[in-house]
Structure formats: C-alpha cells, structure tokens
Amino acid sequence: MRCVRTPKGDDKGQVSIETLGMTPLILVVLVLVWQFVLTGYTFTLAGNAADEGARAAAVGGDWAMAAKKDLPHAFADGATSTESEGDGVVKVRVSLKVPVLFPGGVDFPMTVTGDAGAAQEQ
Questions:
Q1: In a domain, 65, yes or no
Q2: How far apart are CA 47 and CA 105, in angstroms?
C-alpha cells in the first residue's frame, strides 16, 4: 500500500467556497427576474381589465365594475379607471400599481396603464 501525500495548497473544497460566494448574486438575479415577471403580469392585467371595461361600456353596462371584476384582490384595491366617449368609440383606461415582489404588500410609486376601445353599440 502506497501512501499518497497531498501538496500544500490543495484545491479540496474550492467548489464549495465558490458556490457559497456566488449564492447571493444568484439570489439577487432571481429576485430581479421575478420582479420583471410581476411587472409584465401587471401590464397584462391592466390591458385585460381595460378590454373588459370597454366591452361593457360599449353596450351601456357598468364599465367600472367590469374592469375590476377579473382583477385579483391585491391588484383591484389600488386600481383606477376612466372612461371617455367620442366619435362612436368608448375608451377605457385602467391604471394599476406595480407590487414589490408579491401582490398585496408594498407597491412601487409607478403605475402601469392599459387602454382599450370599443365601438358603441347603442
């Protein structure tokens, strides 16, 4: 049986140390990606809510309720909507606050808007 001597400065455990060092950076990147996804989801919700409100306003329905009906509760609390009519077209704009990391908590000071229009059917 031969005894193998390891030289000083062996790389044993180096991968573990590098992984521990990269963990905070990986977590920051994941949080940023999640925030971008949540911002995109907010844009999608605002556009869909505006579409629903415009459809309801086109037939003389309650456009404000239709705009908020399908919004998740955390988004509906801070939602604002406006309606305008002209040239036979009804336009609805819905503004939503962008949440920080999860809906229902703290919101960014910015809002996203969704605009939609529909021909009046009255």
A1: yes
A2: 22
